[in-house]
Specification:
Blueprint: H1 2-15, H2 25-41, E1 75-82, E2 87-94
Amino acid sequence: MWAYCERLVGTVRRECLDFMILLNERHLRMTLCPWVAHYNKGRPHSSLGPGIPEKYSDGPLTGPKNHRHRLPRDCEIKAKDILGGLHHEYWPEQRVA
């Protein structure tokens, strides 16, 4: 159990808290909430290959004809900043004609 706690605390520190100067507990909570959502929903995990823990959608990249390492021609990559640009999330989105 201790190993899991050490791993989590180390990951939080390396990926989030080392880049911040936290002022108080409220500021810590405001920083950790978006990071935890990013960690669980948008961050790639090495144990999943190039995948993420929670899939973003059943969008244009799914299906038997589409390979997960190729972007269909009618898609573009969208990005979202996490924690003011410390981290970024990317996802494919179908272009509107």
